[in-house]
Specification:
By secondary structure, the protein is of the alpha+beta class. It folds into two domains: 15-54, no CATH class; 58-124, RRM (RNA recognition motif) domain (Alpha-Beta Plaits, 2-Layer Sandwich), CATH 3.30.70.330. Helix content is 15%, strand content 32%. It has two helices and eight strands. The strands form two sheets. It has a four-stranded antiparallel sheet, with no helix packed on it. Strands 6-7-5-8 form a four-stranded antiparallel sheet, covered by helices on one side. The chain starts with 14 loop residues before the first strand and ends in an 18-residue tail after the last strand.
Length: 142
């Protein structure tokens, strides 16, 4: 995985083997773009790349935070679960959320709009491609 600044890092993604070279993603990753929990992927170990072969119907959201009071993050997590989502990972400055696409983008964005502007950035992990174009996999899933 490579960041927009050219830095690279390895991330262990929780998967279950489905068949030869195919894996079911168990939890949405924090940094690996384009996939979410429930997706089935082909993984190329040599190139460290994954290709989604079947979408699981979940929306990945990464919430990065710095200097934000813990109670705000705890409230975010509780409200995400109340809205039908789940917490798939957490680091000191990151919360990884997974929502069934049926929850709807307006509900997800409404929840995230309650966060303070200072110290928080969020992004979808599997909604846009590298150029910012919508992937549109959710059409027919909503």
């Amino acid at each position: 995985m490579e960041s927009q600044h050219g830095a690279t890092a390895d991330e262990l993604v929780a998967v279950t083997p489905v068949s030869d070279g195919r894996y079911l993603v168990c939890r949405t990753p924090g940094f690996f773009r384009g996939i979410a929990a429930g997706d089935v992927i082909d993984y190329d170990d040599r190139n460290k790349s994954a290709k989604v072969v079947e979408r699981g119907g979940n929306v990945a959201v990464q919430v990065f935070h710095v200097g934000v009071p813990g109670n705000i993050i705890e409230t975010l997590k509780k409200e995400a679960v109340k809205a039908g989502g789940r917490i798939d990972g957490e680091l000191d400055r990151l919360v990884v959320l997974t929502f069934p696409v049926a929850v709807g983008f307006p509900a997800i964005e409404s929840l995230l709009a309650t966060l303070p502007e200072d110290g928080i950035e969020w992004e979808y992990g599997n909604v846009f491609d590298e150029r910012g174009a919508p992937l549109a996999w959710w059409e027919g899933h909503e």
